[in-house]
Amino acid sequence: MGVYGLGAKESLVSSSTSPLETDVAIIGAGPIGLELALELKRRGIEYLQFERGQVGQTIFAFHPQMRFYSPNDRLSLAGIPLQTSDNDRCTREQYLAYMRSLVIQNQLQIRSYEEIVHVERLFDGSFLLESRRSGKIHYTRAQKLVLASGCMHRPHTLEIPGEHLPHVRHAFSDAHEFFQQRVLLVGGRSSAIEAALQCCRAGAKVTLSYRRPLLKRGAIRPWVLPEFESRVRNKEIRVLLRTSPIEIHQDYVKLLHAEELKELCVRADFVLLMTGYEADRSIIEKLGLDCTGPASSPYFNPETMESSIPGIYLAGTICGGQQKSFHLFIDNCHQHCTKIASNLEKTYTTN
Length: 351
Known about the structure:
The protein is of the alpha/beta class. It is built from eight helices and 19 strands. The strands form five sheets. Strands 1, 2, 3, 4, 5, 6 and 19 form a seven-stranded mixed sheet that branches. The chain has a five-stranded parallel sheet with strand order 8-15-9-10-11. A three-stranded antiparallel sheet has the order 12-13-14, with no helix packed on it.
């Protein structure tokens, strides 16, 4: 993310440079960031939205044709219906198309591929943002700041030897890559199970390593379980429970069995480490927001979503900190947007 600072310091901008002015700056243009932009626009509150990647970058990173767990009405944003032709839960592609249509139809002001590299709080309590796009620096002054950058910035790494070898992946893309190859997947949640199934269907020889004694059925999309369990019974997918990788080599992976405390080697042409993601904590830490609990969740007022620093608000899964077991999703973060927009509406109506 870059370096952030907070304090009443001299402006980063010279007297000859005029920054853009806006009421609210939103960092992040995922589903909740877009929903907040829609709510602000409805209330006539001026805003600018920044996204270091493309709109819905996290959704874009999901594997092709991934189907959401939540029903469509729980994924719809700002009350705008999300419809699919088969009335089934939407796929990654359908949701991205839905998000694009919201941006176009509502003429949302989003500065894609523009990363915030510095934030400074000025004497009057407003914020000066320094952003970078295509090597050029831009400045924006905002009265309020909303962090909606999510919790899936980078893969959670295991920090084991060989993790960065070229045949190791931290995300699944297309199963065709693994046709007639030996693939070891590490993980036991829905993304790992679905990737194992797709690889198996594409003709890969699949082994799944999971550190717990049983798969957590509640963390797996229910419609994929029957096929997965059938393929395990038929020995089309090999499952090694209570195992964790400790070394990755060019053509095999060394696993440690937690109960028997013995090592075993699994031959693998490719390794998929489906071990989850981590939030980008740099902005929270550099701004000095108060955080609490084992997940280091940033403090916020549950009525307004304002953080420990006046004028900085939080929206979406960033509120959960480093979620190990996810409890915040798109479908239970909608209220963040209405709370922030309603609070800001009072501020700007009063003023």
